[in-house]
Amino acid sequence: MKLNINGQTFDYTGDPDMPLLWYLRDEAGFKGVKFGCGIAQCGACTVHLNGRAARSCVLPVSAAEDADITTIEGLANGETLHPVQEAWIEEDVAQCGYCQAGQIMAVAALLEENPNPTDEDIDSGLTNICRCGTYTRMRKAIHRAAALHRGEA
Amino acid sequence: MDGAPITTTRRDLLRYAAAGGALVIAAPLAACSRQAEEASGVRETQASAVGPFIIINSDESIQIAFPNPEMGQGVDTALPMIVAEELGADFDKVSVVQMPLELMRGEDGEITWKYIAQGSGGSYSIVGRWDGLRQAGAVARELLIAAAAQEWGAPSGEITVEKGLLRHAASGRETTFGAVAGIAATLTPAVEAPLKPREEFTLIGTPQKMKNARAIVTGEAIYGIDAEVPGMTHAVMARCPYFDGTALSVDDSAARAVPGVIDIVKVDRPPLGGPYDVQAEGYAVVAENTWAAMKGREALDIEWAHGPFADESTASFKAHCEELLQGEGQVVRNDGDLAGAFANAATTHEAYYWQPYVSHAPLEPQNCVADVRDDEIYIIGPMQFPSSANRMVAAKLDRDRLSIKVDITRLGGGFGRRLTSDYAVEAAVISDAVRRPVKLLWTREDDMRHDFYRPSGMHHLRACFDENGDMTGWAHRLASASKYYRRPNMPETDYWGAELYQDDFPAQLVDNLQMEYFSARSGAPRGSWRAPAHTANAFVVQSFLDEIAHDRGEDPLALRLRILGDSRDLAYENHGGPTFNPGRLAGVLRLAADRGGYGAPMGPGRGRGIAGHFTFGGYVAQVVDVEIGPDGTLRVPRVVAAVDVGTVVNPNGVAAQLESGVNDGLSTALRLAINVEGGRVITGNFDSYQLMRIAEAPPEIETHIIDNGDPPAGMGEMGLPPLAPALANAIFQANGKRIRELPIADQLRI
Predict the structure, then answer these.
(1) Chain B partners of A55 at a C-beta cutoff of 8 Å?
(2) Burial level of B39, CB count in 10 A (0-12/13-18/19+)?
(3) Is the pLDDT of residue B167 over 70?
(4) pLDDT tops 60 at residue B11
(5) Which one of B54, B79, B182, B231 is least enclosed by Cβ atoms within 10 Å?
(6) What whole-number distance in Å separates Cα of residue B130 and Cα of residue B125?
(7) Which residues of A touch B70 (CB under 8 A)?
(8) Does residue B259 belong to the interface with chain A, where contact is any CB pair within 8 Å?
(9) Using 50, 70 and 90 to split pLDDT, how confident is the model at B725?
């Protein structure tokens, strides 16, 4: 089957049940996508499937056939970071950083649907886990990213 | 460290200089803590050499290597700041890189650090590296000054350094680090260089953002799980789920038939009663990729013997602790005459508290790459003490430690779990068996069911006051399974030392005080969990003080302040000593209370609680606000924290760790418990181990720093212990419910 990842086309002939996460990491080499739980609880493996956030640890490769898959490696436009990435640096969000690629992908998708999220929207829309507890800075960064994304900053 | 000599030689310097046309400086060996020594098996000795530590390039870029593993605590920025301060570098031009693990054999044949101690734990990175890194920076600065002096024919004493520039005011000359780095590399460095007085610091104490932020947000940062070597295979293991159980039989035919599976390898555990290298025995499935290994594991048919703890459950362990507390334990501190104080008391107070096992659950599960060959071994993975991986693998496979190279990656969290390198041993055993490089991955269930848990236990607290209202007696009795797990060389009578810190508050502040320990039996593996016993004891002690204050009709903060008294040094022999200053603890309590609006009237269903604790040399107090809805729903809108960790290197990093401590403390207090049934851990993933998400995190965390120039303490752990008791005390104010068991879970539901 054909897989479109970050604008590149890949041919896959293996087990169609393999979770997309393991294809991305082990075979396609997109290791920014992280393994955290394997049961779609933590969101460290979040990618975009046709622009929407998806947890790749429970998504069979076959379900991603013909879709546009974007990983953290494909979020920036060349050297120009996505507003969420930029805001994450500005607010100095990360600690260990392991969950942050998934958080950023989840937030980027959230902002596409809702360019001006309230705190309540963030609470219901972002369910990824950060074990270091960077949530307070993350919330600030989301508001900053939203403003950047709308072109206000 | 008292100026360990830097015996770098001109020849070595020239070699490095020739290699890159750059000035390369090694750090002198800094003292390492006993804890570090124990974890790593590396003896603390004096040694030094030249190494890739500071590199000043002719294009003015500077690279500073940080020796300790980075797991989110901010050493990748804070440690290079210490070097850059003394060096006089422009920190904006500094890039940072993880220093690889460097060991050597000393003259006496023992393995020692080649340059500097390299482990992360005990909030010790800043404390332990402070002197050595300052010296490294100062020695490099003096070399640059000497080079400029030689160029200009000016006395070196007249040359000043600022932000990467060297100046000679008398002649009006100025040059850059990069321009003289080549000359500096040919000079012989001083044994010891003068350090800047604190008043001249221009970088230390200024907020700096983390240096590696861009790599993280672009997904380029390399964690252990991302490491790769050529020809690498992938493995997962089926481990015996029962505490100290064994495999009775295995049928691996179906597993071997799974496409992509290469081999099945038995991994033995050491005999019971001996120290562990791997925790549980099991079978590793080695495959072409992770998914095939997982499918192969599913196809394994293994019958496990339930082991000597088959009847253990969370409930049975709790009953065991309760029963122990009915008897008499081991008195580990006994000041004055406790019985006499209670006999003459005007009022007495008593309460029991319970805490469950909790898991470290770093978001990156354990993993390790090992490539075992006939004459050398390569290990790369996420380890807090990479030298312990070196030691454990050498012992397991009977190899020379120096034939084992260990590389350090960024860690996806540590929290104490990765002080133990059992997963590196597993990976090495598997690679040794298949004679191919292997990446071993633990799934989340593996990680949660084979952790070294924070000890669970039952606390019994008593206190008494005389007719003047002075506290005259304090007793802390604890029944728990000690963190000292499978230590055959340690008598059980020493187990208390990991669970009751004998100099902790209120020791030395009340005349009659007893600490009593009961070593409980449990098969659950235990280990160091962020701020180890301080999390348990701060919750208990600071909650109990609140109870006492309410019983007495006294303000809880006022009670704390009058027990603490004025600023003075008391002896403190535990980690974080040698002194504890109750006045500094009072200082952070006052500051947090002031900024947090402590004591202001709160509406119905609202509460504001306070707690403070001394952890590993640092003082933290927190004021927690709660709102409890009519249905018992808890919300924490705001936390105000004050910290005194002496001289602060990176205030931004200190604030981040304080915020982390607040969120970790809240997450753990709210819902986290590892449950045991039938001699095995049944909690297995984030559906049953419910870490807090953003919706429940306090939207506002305010941090305040006191820096009176005391020697620096660390910051990785001290932000956590006060949170749970401050939260519990706030809940009591809000609805009158006293939390004596953790997690809070559904105790608030009506």
Answers:
(1) none
(2) buried
(3) yes
(4) no
(5) B231
(6) 8
(7) 96
(8) yes
(9) very high
Core vs surface per residue B127-158: b (16+ CB within 10 A) or e: bbbbbbbbbbbbbbbbbbbbbbbeebebeeee
β-pair partners for B311: none
With a cut of 90, say whether residue B188 has pLDDT above it: no
Note whether A124 contacts B695, CB cutoff 8 Å. yes
Neighbour tally for B677: CB within 10 Å: 13
Q: Are B622 and B641 in contact (CB under 8 A)?
A: yes
* Dihedral in degrees, nearest 10, Cα atoms B400, B402, B407, B413: 60
B444 contacts chain A (CB < 8 A): yes
Across the interface, of B234, B692, B694, the residue whose CB is closest to A138 is B694
Which residues in chain A touch residue B449, judged by CB atoms under 8 angstroms apart? none
Mean pLDDT of chain B: 92
Min Cα distance B213 → chain A (Å) is: 6
Closest alpha carbon within chain B to A100? B217
Q: Which three-class secondary structure state does DSSP give residue A49? A: strand
Would you state the pLDDT for residue B52? 52
Query: What ipTM was predicted for this assembly?
Result: 0.98
CA distance A86 to B216: 11
Q: Is A15 an interface residue toward B (CB < 8 Å)?
A: yes
Over the stretch B401-445, which tens digit does the pLDDT of each residue have?
Answer: 999 999 999 999 999 999 999 999 999 999 999 999 999 999 999
Q: Is B233 on the interface with A (CB under 8 A)?
A: no
Q: Tell which of B363, B367, B417, B672 to mutate to test the A interface (max A CBs under 10 Å).
A: B363
Q: What distance in Å separates the CA atoms of residue B529 and residue B415, rounded to the nearest whole number?
A: 6
Say which residues have a Cβ less than 8 Å from residue B18's Cβ, sequence separation at least 6: none
Contact B722/B620 with Cβ under 8 angstroms?
A: yes
* B219 touching A (Cβ < 8 Å): yes
* B686 three-state secondary structure: coil
- Stated pTM of the model: 0.94
Percent of chain B with pLDDT over 90: 84
Q: Report the 10 Å Cβ neighbour count for B196.
A: 17
Read off the tokens for B50: 């030249």
Phi-psi region of B646 (alpha: psi -120 to 50; beta: other; left: phi over 0): left
For β-strands B700-705 and B638-644, DSSP reports them as: parallel
Chain B residues with CB-CB distance to A35 below 8 A: 225, 365, 441
Check CB contact of B362 with chain A, cutoff 8 Å: yes
Quick check: A71 and B219 in contact, CB under 8 A?
yes
